[in-house]
Amino acid sequence: MGAHRDQDAYRPDDAAADEARAALVREIGLSGALDDPAWRTAFAQVPRHLFVPYYFVGRPGGYDRLWYGDPDPRRRERWLRGAYADSAIATRVRDGELISSSSQPSLMARMLDELDVRDGNRVLEIGAGSGYNAALLSHRLGEENVTTIDLDPEITESARTHLTTAGHRPAVVTGDGARGCPERAPFDRIIATCTLPSVPTDWLAQCAPGARILAPLATGLIALKVGEAGPAGRPDFAEGRFLRTAAFFVPLRGTSKGVPMAARPLGGLPKGVTDNDLFRFLLALTEGSLDPHEALSLWELEQRPARERYGVTVSGGRQWAWLDDPAGPYVWPLEPTGPAAAGLIGPGGP
Hints:
This protein is of the alpha/beta class. It is built from ten helices and 14 strands. It has helices spanning 14-30, 37-45, 73-83, 105-115, 132-141, 153-165, 201-205, 271-274, 277-285, 292-301, and strands at 54-59, 62-67, 89-94, 97-102, 123-126, 146-150, 171-174, 187-192, 207-217, 220-226, 237-246, 310-315, 318-323, 331-333. The strands form three sheets. It has a ten-stranded mixed sheet with strand order 7-6-5-8-9-10-11-12-13-14. Strands 1-2 form a two-stranded antiparallel ribbon. Strands 3-4 form a two-stranded antiparallel sheet. Strand 5, helix 5 and strand 6 (146-150) form a beta-alpha-beta unit. Helix 2 (37-45) packs across helix 5. The protein is globular, with a radius of gyration of 21 Å.
């Protein structure tokens, strides 16, 4: 479904929308986010409902569609309430599969705060979604400093329309986010709103030295600092740790999604373990590198480590994850290419 063309039709009663938005900002604040007054102002002034003129809610066997123009006033009220709920919103479903969403606002607020932007920073967002996050960035940094990219032309068309309706015109690019956006580089910050199987190395070459990358990976959020320029004159090194926060996003399209967690053979593992969020994070992070039983042995030996004890290093086109120390002893490749790459690797990285 293409973007809605009637840009004024989905403006509800201003007072009702303003009240709902103010309530959302208060709720996000109570969650511990929005300590930065600049981000609080952005969330208070950017109207989320303009970015979700329709969305989908799950039901047994599929989805129901809510939209601003529903002839039933109760469903229109339900649409507005949902637009300002502190929850993720399914914005695009194709053949029963969720392909795009608007993230949970409190998680967005935490991610934007962790992005640690400064005035004048140039930001690349991977995954345009509804355009709401790009609008928040544009409000904070100025639209001329914001680029958002998505593989799906319908998504970028829709995001561009929503952004225009809300009064923002950042660069909206249709392309493979894993390749970045070299024509708009260099970037001081890169933020992804989709789950990665690994860190695309093309991003580093498009970063200014000292840039920060924040991205969902393995049900967590990795925060990487980009190093100085390498021999080729472009940064080729980045390193950082995971944040404490859990994060679940739609996978980055255009890259391998890997084996879905539900499809991994976990036979013989205790049920209480396989349901544990931190263990499932380790399973996702070591997918293709550690057998689940090896992962369990490591997890128990290290007393069930939390996300922030793990990190990622990207160097010279290779990358590896680690526990506590990038030099080992617990280090494994993020993208093993065969049996020889599987399992724990020695100190110093792959």
